[in-house]
Amino acid sequence: MWWVWQVGFRVSENRQGGADLHAHTSSSDGVLTPGEMVLAAVEAELQAVAITDHDTLAGIGAARAEAQQQPIDLVAGIEISVRLRNLEIHLLGLFIDESCSQLRQLSLSSRRARRERAERMVERARSLRLDLSMQHIVQVAGSATIGRPHVAAAMVAAGIVPSPEIAFRRYLGTGRPLAVPRELIGAPEAIGIIHRAGGIAVVAHPGSSRVRATLLEELSAAGLDAIEVRHPRHGRQREQLLLEQCRRLGLLPSGGSDFHGPGRGTAKLGEYRVPMDWYQPLCRQAQERKAQAVAKE
Ligand code: AMP
Ligand code: ZN
Ligand code: FE
Ligand code: FE
Fold first, then answer.
1. Using an 8 Å Cβ cutoff, are 58 and 65 in contact?
2. Is residue 148 in contact with ligand 1, taking CB distance under 6 Å?
3. CATH (domain of 154)
4. Which residues lie across from 203 on neighbouring strands?
5. Are residues 154 and 211 in the same domain?
6. Is the CB of 147 under 6 A from ligand 1?
């Protein structure tokens, strides 16, 4: 990846152009439909946007169809919850081929595991004498993969808590009574599947997941391609530290807003965009991964 050092890691403040490589649609716990997300990205004057729903590929087809009508690149992505030692961390697969059978299998089994976790959350809620049912949750989630934000919204709808924030604080946040663990795929295995789908593996928000330097080394040894350096949960200082880790480990920098919809979460779409001289090396790395995936077939 010698060319990275030639383009350098300039931190630019572009409001126009650039790429936002982390966004959630209504296929997982976001608000906008995939088509609306593409239009919002055009409105934000992005040159590229990645759709990275939690553990599902369901939104990519519709996003692609809309992007074909628009002056924007659509990066097909997924955010996979994985296990690294005893931690849950998130990996982004970017530039993936959503028809890859192993990746589809992974998303189907995660979908099932998320549903089963929601069922156990309901059982626990009942044991706490809270009036929460699967119907409440399914009403909120529709066909999306069920995440804790859906459960939080269902708890508000059922009158258990006044707001989603309070649902997380009292019940759903880490260490709280309804924070039920679910089975997670190991990080190296997930990286392998992303590569087989012709994509690149990016560790998401390592700052907020407390992924320390030794764990970055472990991920790097397993074939990680990039670090999500720019993210709403990372301050400037964290960004600089992560850029140093990129240099040290020979990884590329990536970034995005982790946008969940207007008024949701901390960032607007495009707010944490990365410049094209971060985006283009990621594209080239994906081309290499695709060539390797084809060679292995
Ligand atoms: P899940 O993947 O189902 O475990 O849910 C994780 C999602 O819940 C994250 O992507 C966030 O959007 C949201 N989330 C996690 N912790 C909190 C919190 N303390 N307050 C609000 N939302 C949260
Ligand atoms: Zn989310
Ligand atoms: Fe995440
Ligand atoms: Fe995310």
1. no
2. yes
3. 1.10.150.650
4. 91, 227
5. no
6. yes
pLDDT score, position 297:
79
265-280: per-residue pLDDT in tens?
789 999 999 999 999 9
pLDDT tens for 78-97 read 999 999 998 999 999 999 99
How many independent structural domains does the chain possess? 2
Low-confidence stretches of the chain (pLDDT beneath 50): 1-14
Site to probe by mutation for ligand 1, drawn from 120, 145, 148 as the one with most ligand atoms within 8 Å of Cβ, is 148
Distance CA 31, CA 270 (A): 16
What sections of 134-235 are H helices per DSSP? 134-141, 148-157, 164-167, 187-196, 213-221
Closest ligand 1 atom to the C-alpha of 151?
3
The whole-angstrom separation of Cα 80 and Cα 219 is 14
What's phi and psi for 282, nearest 5 deg?
-65, -40
Q: Specify the CATH number for the domain of residue 87.
A: 3.20.20.140
For ligand 1, whether the C-beta of 149 sits within 6 Å is yes
DSSP codes of every residue in 60-105: HHHHHHHHTTTTSEEEEEEEEEEEETTEEEEEEEES--TT-HHHHH
Model pLDDT, residue 2: 37
95 and 120 assigned to the same domain: no
Ligand 4 center to 127 CA (angstroms)? 31
CB of 168 closer than 6 angstroms to any ligand 1 atom: yes
